[in-house]
Amino acid sequence: MTALVSTARSKGRDRGAAVRVEGVSKRFRLYQERNQTLKAAMMRGGRATYEDFWALRDVSFEIPTGGVFGLIGQNGSGKSTLLKCMAKILTPDEGRITVNGKISALLELGAGFHQELSGRENVYLNGSILGLSRKEIDRKFDEIVDFAGLDQFIDTPVKNYSSGMYVRLGFSVAINVDPDVLLVDEVLAVGDEAFQRKCDEKFADLRDAGKTIIVVSHSLSTVRTMCDEAAWLEHGVVKEIGVPGLLIEKYVENTHVERVAAEGGGSRWGTGQARVEKVELLDEHGDPVLRVRAGAPATLRFHYETQGPIVKPVFGFGIHRIDGTHATGVNSRETIVPDRIEGTGHVDFAMAALPLVQGSYDVTVAIVDDSNLHTFDYRTKALRFDVGSGRPREAEGVFAIDGRWSFES
Amino acid sequence: MTTLAEYRASRELLGNLTQRELRGKYKRSALGWAWSLINPLALAVMFTFVFGVVFQARLAPVGNTELEGITAYPLFLLCGLLPWAFLANGVNGGIGALVANSNLVKKVYFPREILLGANTLALLVSLLIEMSVLGVALLLFGNVWLQFLPLILVVVALQSVFVTGIGLLLSALNVYFRDVQHFVGIGLQLWFYATPVIYPITLLGNIADREFLGISLLSYYKLNPMTAFVEMYHQMLFFLQWPDWELFLYATFCSFAMLAFGLYVFKKLEPRFAEEL
After folding, report:
1. Which helix or strand (DSSP H or E) is residue A321 part of?
2. Residue A51: inside a domain, yes or no?
3. Do A218 and A321 belong to one domain?
């Protein structure tokens, strides 16, 4: 499967391949019983029982010189393995990878730092591990320290550094190697916001200088904004290569239908006199779904069951983004409080246009009495659902604000 | 996979990793580098006490030497003990070189052999310091060994090659089988007593002349490469004589054979280091 990209983009993109991956396969051994002792090895006649797991299977593609290339895929899709093969840390079982120019990998920041040595000593040590000569480090030393923002602490042993300082110094050394090809694995989110901005600038500089950056990330928004092109890996094969926007849309579409109603994970408390047995998300046709598009009509349905009559129950729910951010919370007290409920039934909350931006969300639900003195049931993470891109297609934050653009000139 | 050019480019890395070992070793210890001398001295005192005083063994080595009396045995002992410690520490450090640096091996590419090279070099620096102190002591007691200096340095270099070879072999095996390190713990003990460090080879006397399968036991004994190394140090530093050429040739052969074998096994196992660690 070879995908060549013809779309001419930013300058210097037609200088041939920066990385050529040809028929690469990588096999891991998943040991059931691992012979890590000689005794074990001898008892089994030298044979460990293992299953082969192909992390990569006959992967071929080219990454053009210049620009940012993203690798996306779910956990276990082989993207990190591929990156490590490019970095020569892992050796492919079949096929080969050719890299044109000097390569540097940001796989783990500060790997090889010695705790007892000072920041200065570690810059030299780490620099030479990454392939810099002493002279080059001398030349770049101030820049490295400055970039990490550690002037005051450079002669302190790194064991006294905060984790942020540690990572910043590691990042600063690695990025100043001035590679032709830079491999980045999930480490973009280091340091505070100011440092983040510096990193982004540095990436932009490298990119403008015609260097190639290869990014593995779970953050689709990172890939969307940074990359000129991306490859989507699934179970060790390249599923598709293309422009990030469209590719990510397909990827999200494809991977999120696999979501099954997440059971458990949340906590629950309350008297139990009334319980929310099930929460459903209904689409515009009234069918239960686990995924809706942003801006589409949607209804949350809460199925309840009571033991005996419940007087003036109030239903409430909250929606949290899966990182814990509280997106919204409303209850029925202000609008409608039924006099009593008994047995089983359901309560609906209908939305003309779901105002959430794309992402995954958890629903917390509660039944309390009118006075708020009794909590009958309080259940977190009662439902997890996904919001796909819709209207608006690209939005940041939590809420999709409803409004209309207009231009006048 | 590793090319000569990569080795050359990695020379600085070798230097830096060696420095890391050396600087890291005695950081935060009050006596610092003095430990490097205190350890062999303590051993020397201990062995002198046990064998000289408790067992009252006649250990005074005979031969062409200015040394006699109470100082003779400890000095003789140190001539073999320091090179032995170089080997023992080299083996112990070598075994762990890959496992201890697994964070590096798994995250950064560089020729992995360098870790073993740095291990040997760092210990070599310690050895040279210790040997210098011993050398001065020998001179003070009247044993003028200076004419042998160039050859001693050659022997030290050969031993470094030998130590690196063993380190390459064992470090690679230890990635796959962690009990290599336990075997080696026992092995080193046996090896120590099978090497004429705490006793002069002449003490073997009659036993050595007995034959097994038509070959004298002494010949078997001399198959031990460390016997050749330690004997050469003894001959030059203590007995002030040129070493037997057969010892020198044998030690040279063993060193390079060990390096070649170690490197072969290392290269064979290297592709899966990152995932097995």
Report:
1. strand A313-321
2. yes
3. no
The answer to whether the CB of A196 falls within 8 A of the CB of A173 is no
Phi, psi of B29 (to 5 degrees): -115, 135
A37–B27: do the CB atoms touch at under 8 Å?
no
Query: Which CATH number do you get for residue A350?
Result: 2.70.50.60
Structure tokens of B44?
């020397």
pLDDT digits (tens, 9 = 90+) for A187-244: 655 667 777 788 878 888 888 888 898 988 777 767 877 888 899 998 888 988 988 8
Query: Is A124 part of any domain?
Result: yes
Residues in chain A with CB shorter than 8 Å from the CB of B1 are 91
Task: Evaluate whether residue A10 is within a structural domain.
Answer: no
8 A C-beta contact, residue B262 and residue B161: no
Using alpha carbons only, what angle is made at residue B203 by residues B198 and B208, rounded to the nearest 5 degrees? 115
Take residue A211 and report the two structure tokens written for it.
């260097």
Side-chain-facing half-sphere of B152: CA atoms under 13 Å: 21
A282 and A245 belong to one structural domain: no
- Find the CB nearest A116 among B15, B19, B28: B28
Q: SS3 for B185?
A: helix
Element of type H or E holding A58: strand A49-64
Mean pLDDT, to the nearest integer, of B37-51?
Answer: 83
Q: Please report, as a single letter, which amino acid is at residue B94.
A: G
Pairing state of beta strands A268-269 and A375-388? Answer: antiparallel
Total structural domains in chain B? Answer: 1
Does any domain span residue A330? yes
Q: Do A310 and A164 fall into the same domain?
A: no
Beta-ladder partners of A311: A340
A22: buried, middle or exposed (CB in 10 Å: 19+, 13-18, 0-12)?
middle
Closest by CA to B240, choosing from B62, B61, B44, B66, is B66
Residue B188 structural domain: 4-276
Do A285 and A216 reside in the same domain of the chain? no
pLDDT band at A261 (very low <50, low <70, confident <90, very high): very low
Q: In what helix (H) or strand (E) does residue B25 lie, and over which residues does it extend?
A: helix B11-25
Chain B interface residues (partner A, CB cutoff 8 A): 1, 9, 12-13, 15-17, 19-20, 23-24, 27-28, 101, 103-110, 176-180, 183, 271-272, 274-275
Q: Distance between CA atoms of A311 and A273, rounded to whole angstroms? A: 11
d(CA A339, CA A343): 14
The helix or strand, by DSSP H or E, that contains position A216, with its residue range, turns out to be strand A212-216
What domain range is A340 assigned to? 268-388
* Residue range B181-227, pLDDT digits in tens: 888 989 999 999 999 988 888 877 767 677 777 777 788 888 999 99
Residues of A in Cβ contact (< 8 Å) with B271:
91
Do A246 and A300 have their domain in common?
A: no
- Find the closest chain B residue to A107 by CA distance: B107
Closest CA relative to residue B71, chosen from B143, B146, B131: B143
Report the complex ipTM: 0.75
Residue carrying structure tokens 């009794």? A374
Number of domains in chain A: 2
**CB neighbours of A238 closer than 8 A, spacing ≥ 6?**
A1, A3, A59, A60, A61, A231, A232
First-last CA distance in chain B: 20
> How many other CB atoms are there within 10 angstroms of residue B122's CB atom?
22
Q: Are residues A244 and A298 in the same domain?
A: no
| Cα A191 versus chain centre, distance | 17
